[in-house]
């Protein structure tokens, strides 16, 4: 039996009461055009759209607000200044070092700095439609670079600072991006991250016409004459005014690479109008944001959560968002709570992996700080186990405030399933109810639709404004990946249970994607990295339950003949994967094996490998189709001995 946690009463001007949710949800699915035309009123359009929803999932062609024109940077920045709110703080920067300088950037300053950066991009030669790669630390200039692109109609492709030079090169090449914005170094937990050096190494493999470099730590970097420019010098005498380019609603806004079950990461493409309406609306209702509040999302701008809920969603709402450069456990495990206390944070949004890690440290670090300003907590990125939910609710939230467990994906642009703070009771471990306009459907593996309380694969049957429109440069891959498993439906890749009250419980990925500390990782990517190594003949990678990370990376590796397994080789392969993909892909377990379990037709039986990695030998299921059943026995033996 799941537990029900009653929504706390709130009689201030909450955006959504229980009755309003019911009424608005009903309208959003029965009259989507009228509903979304109304939500879109909160956006400043250069040309008001008359067409609202215009989409098909078979063939796949998705448009929203198609004849509208707008600029999202104008909406996120300039219009607040024009409305007399230029003195309001847009971004608070809390540096990695607790003793470092806090910066408070008002909307007026954000407008000036974004315009200056937009002029710098233009001076480099960036034009409307060009792709700009952003590889930045968690500093306000990272957000400014995104907004500067949007201002001039360039398409940003942000790469998380934890990715390797190889990963950067692959992404630059895939979207033919001629321009890079980076910094000398990033800082995390007191350690410098060599951002510029990584870009240099990437640009040994692929070329770029220009690189803007922010001076952040002051660390030594090499500058390539003619290609690299220090931002502070390059932009010193540039104007702080730059007009916002009028964009069609369906003009691309950004590309964000994300892992899937096969092949290289995909460049998921989001467009301007629908994404603006979707992030504005979801931020407003999910976080129930109230003017003057301090909102903190601990994600990185390199992930979709940072795009939608550090940059676009909050700024479109004129909110004050905190940007934190550091990590939860440095200098000690009270860092998050110290920052909440210091900045009087009202809304705090983080990932279950961080909650689990901090829960281990007990109440002490939390109780050292005054968290009385907190009004709402959020969770995102992976399923939150009820125990961690409880701790978050009772210890961090003092048992008095709601939690929103927001389920969504890079491809969905914003939150899809969640409870709303004062509209729904909560069930620890359940994301909750569909957001406005979202029509989830559970299907079994044959595609039969499941009704009522049931468990199956999660699909969405109708488009929503923030939906990704395509995979950059490969629409066929978009169709294949998301709309072909269950024709005419968007398939999320997640398993899900719906209970008798209509609450949704995400059970995790049902494809070959694993979720490591809230980061999406394709097992195929790790496998290709491993087999690139000269001593590896074959590799199969699966996820297994991990106390802190949610899932860990378990690699079965077959070596070339004549090569003997050793602790040194294990270490070498770990380093190799870090070099190829980045530290987030570091294998947790390397299991050397003379052979992998295969069917007679040569297909690797991943189900068996998953079970063995999970230490679940009783449930191996049918192994009779294995070409050599002895392989499974040997693997179990190997696992037991670890
Ligand atoms: C998982 C992150 C359970 C899910 C915004 C999804 C979640 C993948 C939740 C997308 C949640 C995200 N509960 N699972 N609240 N939020 N997921 O693209 O498996 O990095 O498919 O987007 O994370 O990860 P992505």
UniProtKB/TrEMBL annotation:
Positions bound to CoA: 188-191, 305, 329, 517, 578
Domain AMP-binding enzyme C-terminal: 525-603
Taxon lineage: Bacteria, Pseudomonadati, Pseudomonadota, Alphaproteobacteria, Sphingomonadales
Protein name: Acetyl-coenzyme A synthetase
Native source organism of the sequence: Qipengyuania spongiae
Task performed by this protein: Catalyzes the conversion of acetate into acetyl-CoA (AcCoA), an essential intermediate at the junction of anabolic and catabolic pathways. AcsA undergoes a two-step reaction. In the first half reaction, AcsA combines acetate with ATP to form acetyl-adenylate (AcAMP) intermediate. In the second half reaction, it can then transfer the acetyl group from AcAMP to the sulfhydryl group of CoA, forming the product AcCoA.
Enzyme type, top EC level: ligase
Annotated keywords: Acetylation, ATP-binding, Ligase, Magnesium, Metal-binding, Nucleotide-binding
Enzyme Commission (EC) number: 6.2.1.1
Residues annotated as domain Acetyl-coenzyme A synthetase N-terminal: 21-76
Molecular function terms, GO-annotated: acetate-CoA ligase activity
Gene name as annotated: acs
InterPro entries the record matches: Ac_CoA_lig (IPR011904), ACAS_N (IPR032387), AMP-bd_C (IPR025110), AMP-bd_C_sf (IPR045851), AMP-binding_CS (IPR020845), AMP-dep_synth/lig_dom (IPR000873), ANL_N_sf (IPR042099)
Assigned protein family: Belongs to the ATP-dependent AMP-binding enzyme family.
SUPFAM superfamilies, per database record: Acetyl-CoA synthetase-like (SSF56801)
Modified residues (N6-acetyllysine): 603
